[in-house]
Amino acid sequence: MDGFTPFPDALAAQPWPRTRPGTAFGEAPLPGRALDEGMGVAVGRRTVFRPEDGEDFGRVAGRVAAGNMSLAPVPDAAEQARLRNAIATGALLTSGRHLQHGDAGQAGRNMEVFTNCATAIASFAEFYLLLNGSGVGRAYDDELCLVDWGQAPTLLLHLDPAHADYPRGRDGLRRFGIELGILPWGTEDVGFDAAAEARVRDFLTAELLPDLSAVPAGAVLHRVEDSREGWAKAVEQLEAMAFEGASGQVLVLDLSAIRPAGSPIKGMQGRPSSGPVSLLRGLLNIRRHVLAPARERDPAGEALQPWEQALLVDHYLSVEVQVGGARRAARMATKSWRDPGVLRFVRAKSEGGLWTANNSVMVDAEFWARVRAEDGAGDLLTAHAKAVFAEVTRCAYINGEPGFINGDRLEDVRTGSAWEKPVHEDGRDFRSSRYQVEAAAGLLAEASRRASSARFPVTTNPCGEITLHVTGGYCVIADFAPLLACPVDLESFAPGEASADLAALWDARVEDSVRLGVRFLIRANRMDALYGEEVARTNRIGIGPTGLHEWAWMRFGLGFHDLLDESRSREFWRALDRLSAAAKAEANAYAESLGMARPVTVTTVKPAGTTSKLFGLTEGAHLPARRQYLRWVQFKGGKDEQTRAWLPGSDPLLAEYEARGYPIRTLRSFPGMSIVGFPTVPLALRLGLGPKLVTAPEASPDEQYAWLRLLERHWIGESQGNQVSYTLKVFTDQVELDAFRAIMRDEQPRVRCCSVLPSRPDSELGYEYLPEEEVSAGRFAAIVEGIRDGTVQEAVDWAHLQCASGVCPI
Predict the structure, then answer these.
(1) Which residue in 448, 487, 671, 683 is deepest, having the highest Cβ count within 10 Å?
(2) pTM for this structure?
(3) d(CA 245, CA 148)
């Protein structure tokens, strides 16, 4: 008995039982769930726990619930207690952003810190959102790229020689030379001879304004403030002047007020600042690689059209956000298949080195029809569509990018609501108490006018699961983990054989976690926000499940192949139908009670990378990646080339993990960053899924596309739904290019979004490292045995791994 009754998506708008959600969790404090040893603890320490949490997830839940409920118009101690319990048990995981930043002071903070997903139409806006930790999507369609950066003013840069980060002395000059790319990475003191020192000094003389007394007459002097807002304002000033065609003017940016590198950032739990040299490097790259060549470009030529200039500017700024170490700088870059320069966009990553964004081509039903057309030789648009398809699939077959997004299937396009966004001339659609657009208000207004008639007025966030307006918008998102809503130890019953009473309580807690979750997200939409106008218009949220395969196994006794057979897995899909309807009904009713707009979107499935790792769950909709693997996690820090000691400012966890014997590597492509490898065995394997376990490489592409279509139908639904974020791996040593193209042509048009990643031996992919590295069972065992951390060995549970491999110890 599954405890669910049929409740199709079409009934989501009908009256829903108005019992207050959360009663199944109660109000007496429940103990916080222990994090998965090894990876879970590492992620918790790196991104969730504060000193006052004492590594107790129950305390995290307490502060997160308190912060979120502070956004309610009327205090509600009962709901706060229930919300706290749902989070403490792991049943409602919110998202990593809320777990990290949520506390009693939330009502006084800006929404950008709590938004996972955003879009931007201008480079300064994207930069500011990235600095706040949001993943940002941007459409680089010709009709939406308004700024010719070749019309920017002459840009001069100044850093006071008295600043602590101004290079001085041999060691300071050497480090500066390495950081700015003047010297080869890894240049040691012995190699820093007089000629190398002279190169660095010549660079300083040529590239920096030595003194503000040398500012040319009539120049605009802008002093960069020591804040996220200050950094973004500097780019806003430059971009606005370029939009206005100020090529005959001079802009001086003074970086002297920025705090030295390594100084604590209060709003980031004391994490270290990257200092003024980081911003200086980004601006120098823009001046050298965008502004100067854009002035010399052929306006009728293919190279460095405004869309490409914008892509380059955003890349160089994004690099500096990532180098900061405490922020992720996740980006999505999309471009319409109809644009003449789209083939250049397709090759931007593989040939242009623009690695900081996930790139996708925005397509529609017409595109796929033209691709499938047998005779289109005389039709230029059909020939173009076929060429785009051929080039995208050629590149994607090598490194997985770009992808295809079916823009006409996204919610706001299907309903037409995207074109209803009003145009504001006064900059109100990019304004909060912390940041008010000034110089670029005209740029944003013109962008809104363009978007009101654009073919693709929406794009997606970096992971593809959220639909957002191209001119800017947010989505606050959260995960619920139905497995973790189980009120008893999972080892106390056999998979799929929970008693009727247990099943009823478990199901009630799952539904309560969903209903509490949508209320949680709608309250977050009440925060002060840059995109406050768009938030009020759409009230967009996104809640989705994670750990689906573990829940299907323990609650219903179903493996992946069982789930694809709808007759066998009927109870599971009925459960998702009802939960989807509950999410939308609760969201609509709660928004109405608060006088807010009906949410444009409610359901989604996000990657759930951080939250799932806390408890060892499969991530979002994904299958387990492998049966055993090393999960690499980035930490800020590196080693001195000579002493091999950790450099000042390195995350102290690096030395701790090194002492315990974890594999550690210092990165070259991300200077100042190191990675730690955590041996990982999927929880699904530890739960005894055994022969029913299907890993991502073991599932065929058509099986995975079928899985996505089922999730879109039963969870995303026909209305108020975003998308499923999913990465599908294709073995290119088993699938030839023509077969790969056939998969994309036949399957990709039938879902909203799906990233397809070619799978080959890690060493052939061309990346310095991958987040998950497959290792043989023997090497895996050796790594585990070399780690001096008993709890990790317990979490890996080597005996389970051996049994799953058919080598059970007696």
Answers:
(1) 683
(2) 0.86
(3) 8
